[in-house]
Every structure is written in structure tokens, then in C-alpha cells.
Amino acid sequence: MKPRALLIFLFSLVVIVAGLPACQPLQELDKAPAISLQLIDGRKISLQQLQGRPVLITFWATTCASCRKEIPHLIALYNELAPKGLEIIGVAMSYDPPNQVVALSKRLQIPYPLALDVEGNIALAFGDVNLTPTSFLIGPDGSIVQHDVGIMDMNGLRKRIEGLL
Fold first, then answer.
1. Would the pLDDT of 18 be above 60?
2. Has residue 1 been placed in a domain?
3. % residues pLDDT > 90 (the chain)
4. Are strands 87-92 and 55-60 parallel, antiparallel or unpaired?
5. Average pLDDT rounded to a whole number, residues 9-26
6. Distance, C-alpha 160 to centroid of its chain
7. What strand order describes the sheet that includes 144-149?
8. DSSP state of 96
9. Would residue 127 count as lying in a domain?
10. Which of 28, 27, 26, 1 is nearest to 12 (CA)?
11. What's 59's domain CATH number?
């Protein structure tokens, strides 16, 4: 590369990098955050209320194809393991219009609670979740025992949950 071309390249790189926001890698959470969630049925629930049982928090969006593909598996998991103590809470992303969340919930007959994260505070509390689906399995003691980005391995998840029940 010619000196002038190299100088232009380096200058361009500095300009691009300087314009980017400062980013730090997210640290893995070891404990579930102490938060409350507003559910679409009007109830409010805190994660502290659920201690003593495994809880699966799954961030999703109505426009996310992978999320919609995962929902029937989550429904089956909930129907199978909720009577034994599992709780699943779906958290709709802040950009998801609440009326779309409610409509999809009714259409798919989602039996587990769904929360609206209108201001993005729940996603922020879980390490600034931006990708869907993203899921956190919380153990009965409040520790995060599994964190998945993308579609979960349902068989592996089921075995892990059964070990926590």
C-alpha cells in the first residue's frame, strides 16, 4: 500500500472508531436482578416472589421469527413442568407494541405470564438484552444457571429444569 493510501486509511479508521460509542463487554450475571414485572393481565410480580422455584425469563418480540418458532415449545414445557414448580415469564421487548403482544398471546393461547418492558428497564437489568430470543434460567436460590441467546435446546433445558425441581 502506498504511503498516502495508508495514511488515508488510518485517518479514516480513527474517524470511524472515534465516532463509535464506548462499549464494554457485558458481564455475565450471576444473580437474578431484584425487579418487578408488569404483566399484560395487569398483575405485577417481582422475581423475589418466585424464589424457591426455577424461573425461565425469555425476552422475545412479536416480529422475531425465531421467537415465534420457540413459543410452542415453551408452551409445552410450561404445561409439563409448571405443575411441578417451573415458572416461565415472557418479556416483550420495549419496541414491541403492547397491543401486538396481547393479540399474539391470545392467538397462540400462551398460558405463561407475559410482561411488557415498555421502558426497557427489564432488558437493562438483565445486562442490556438487545437480541431476541434471549433467555435466562434462574435457579430456586435466585442464581442464573443458564443464559442463552437464540433458540434454546429444549431437551437440554428440560433436563436442567428437572434437576432444579
1. no
2. no
3. 82
4. parallel
5. 40
6. 18
7. 114-116, 87-92, 55-60, 134-138, 144-149
8. S
9. yes
10. 1
11. 3.40.30.10
